[in-house]
Structure formats: C-alpha cells, structure tokens
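Sequence only, no structure available. Ideas?
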Amino acid sequence: MAPLRILEDKIDSKEIVVGVIGLGYVGLPLSLAYLKKNIKVIGFDLDPEKIQMIESGVSYIKHIAAEEVTGYVKTGHFQVTDDFSRLSKPDALLICVPTPLSKSREPDLHYVKTTAESISKSLRKDQIVVLESTTYPGTTVEVVQPILEKSGLVAEHDFALAFSPEREDPGNPQFGTINIPKVVGGIDSISTRLGEKLYGIALEKIVSVSTTQVAEMTKLLENIFRSVNIALVNELKILCQRMGIDIWEVIEAASTKPFGYMPFYPGPGLGGHCIPIDPFYLTSKAREFDFSTKFIELAGEVNVSIPYYVVQRTMDALNEQEKSIKGSKILILGIAYKKDVDDSRESPSFKLIDLLQDKGAEILYNDPFIPKLKPVRKYNFEMQSMPLNQENLEGVDCVLVATNHSAYDYDFIYQHAKLIVDTRNVFSKDQKKSAKVVMA
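Reply:
I predicted one. Tokens follow.
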C-alpha cells in the first residue's frame, strides 16, 4: 500500500477526527469550522479554565456565540481536554499555540517545541501534523520534524507534516475562518496534497504552495507589509500635525484613487498577536544569512515610538489648560488592540498606561469588552473598567481615546469631557476644531 494511503482514505471519506492544540483565537474558530462539517474534534489546551468553560457551554471569545459551542459539546462531537496523552486519538493534529518574542525580541518557540515533544510521545502512523503558529521560514523542517521523528516514525513515510499559517481577524464581519483563503505547504508533495484535502473539508478555498518554507514566509510577508505601511502613515501623522494638515482627510482623499493605493490608518501604536511580533521572526532568521532587514527594523522603531508621541501630545494638551501631567486624572477609552473585540494582546493601551503612570498621572479606563485587566507579557495592572457616565467623564482631567469601539457614544463623551486626546479620529470635523479635542 502506498505511504499514508489509510490517512488519505479517511480524509476523502470524511471519517477523520481532528485534534486542535491550543483553543484560543485561532484554535477555537478552527475547531468550529470542522464541527460545522460534522467532523469530530478533540481540542487540547493547558488552561483548565478554558476547558471548564467549553464543557459548560461558555464562550470566552466575544465573536463566538456560546450556543455554537454548547450543541457540539452536548452531542459529543466536540471534546476538550488537557490530557495530552490522548494525542494519538485524532488523525490530524493542528498546532495553534502562541509564538511570542523574548525580552530581547528573539523568537520564543517554547510552546511549539513542547507541543511537538508531547506529540512525539503519542505519534502513530497515518497521522498528519500541521503547524499553524506564525514563525520563521524553516521552523517546520528544522525544529518540528526532528522532534516528531524522535518517536521512531519517519515523516513523509509514516506521517505527513505541513505548515499552514493562521489568518484570523477577530471582529471582521466580512471574513472569518471558513472564507479566508487557506495557504498550506507540506514537506513533500504527499503532505501538501493531504493538507489541502484536510482543510478543504471545512474551508472554502485552499491555496497550495511548494514547501513549508514558502507557507511560513507568506504569513510573515503579509504582516510585514502591514507593519511597514502602518509605520509610514504613523510617521506622516506626526509630520502632518506639525504642518497643520489633517492626516485623516489626506487618507480619505487618497483612498479615492481606484488603483495603486490602499489605505492604512494611524493609531496609538501597534497591537494584536501578529503585527508587533511576526516581523521580528524574520529579522532574527535573516541574521543567520548575514542580511539586515532594514525596512522591518525601521518600521519597528517608528511604531514603538508612537505611544511616546501620544503621551507627549497629552502632556502638551494638559499644559495648554495650565495643568501638569503629574496628578492629572486620565481616562483611557479602550484596552482592546482594535475596535469591537475583547482581545488585548500587545495592546498599545498598556504602554500608554505605563508611560502616563511614570509621569505621575492617575489612570482610569473603560472598555465594554474588557471588564478587568489581566496580567500580560510585560504588564500587570490591577484595574477594573469604570462606568462611562457623565459624573466620571466630568471628574477626569483628560479622556484619551485609544480604541474606537462602536459602543461608545462619542457625542456624549464630547459633551461631558473637559479635554479629549483622540488617536482614532472618532470625532466630527467641527468637534475636532474645538480646543477641547487634540489629535494624537
């Protein structure tokens, strides 16, 4: 029998069991995509709180309704566990674990390596393993494959191995897991074909590429493109402010060009699990080839500087009202890194809080999606969201708009705030002409 024929037959007949390792913003939506196609899923996660919430029919991700999860749990189609000895049960193992940066901005593959080690202890013939975690080109074959082959099994012959970058965009009403084109590249033609068939069961469009390295680089290019263009528009924002030009009006006008341009928007800094982190995975790898990624480094420098610019604009705005930053009460609107989501990973709001507190300001915050701040990679602020009412707006010296949630009544905020620093262009042209609104 040809290698991996049993696995291919299971995929073709849709009799496979899919295992998803890591049930966060990538893993849980991916699990649901397969469940909707009547494919059984076993979800693996080290966080007992996530396991308990799923088993109780509770969704911990805002844009996923609890009812979506409950039905599949009750029927037994969706099982969740923190018992990694069960990794031999699924026919497909999709790795959706974090790939953060170290303090020195070096790739931290700890979660990928420990997951691969766990798989190697239970790996059996006729399984396919797919890494989805964003990483540098070469990770799948240089890091994951050798660990998996500690099992005594051989990739290409005993099991298939591929890379398929996640492309989640939480809160996007137009594109979700199912209809975002899925790139997949295997370590050989068989792994690529099996990966294409596997994802084709649940997702609408599959884009096959020749190698895992091409697939890995694809994800990095996507996010480096965004990082560089966001840095460009952030830099132009500062220049336009000095020149007395409204950068938002400039972007709106430029967007009318039907070719050769696409809009990117400034903000208080970079946030999310991708753009602030992914480019530096390539920067690190490039050093092995004596290559300096100048654009990536420069974009990183610009984007990292933006929270400092926002704080300086806040200080200047308070100074115009004859107030010192020290002792001022500042209400930050929005902790989530983007509008209408409950995801605060790498949010620039944390850096703003840190910088403002260092200047002696008293910081309060409101976010309808994040009632309490949890410890994150760099920060641990013990704060709770305060009500956004007239009394609280009038009781602070400055309101800093960091996230443009749709739930905010910006006319109400404008009416009752003494001073507003707007990083998201949420106020009208007439309101922006007022002395109480400062763009940053």
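The chain is about 40% helix and 10% strand.
Hope that gets you unstuck.
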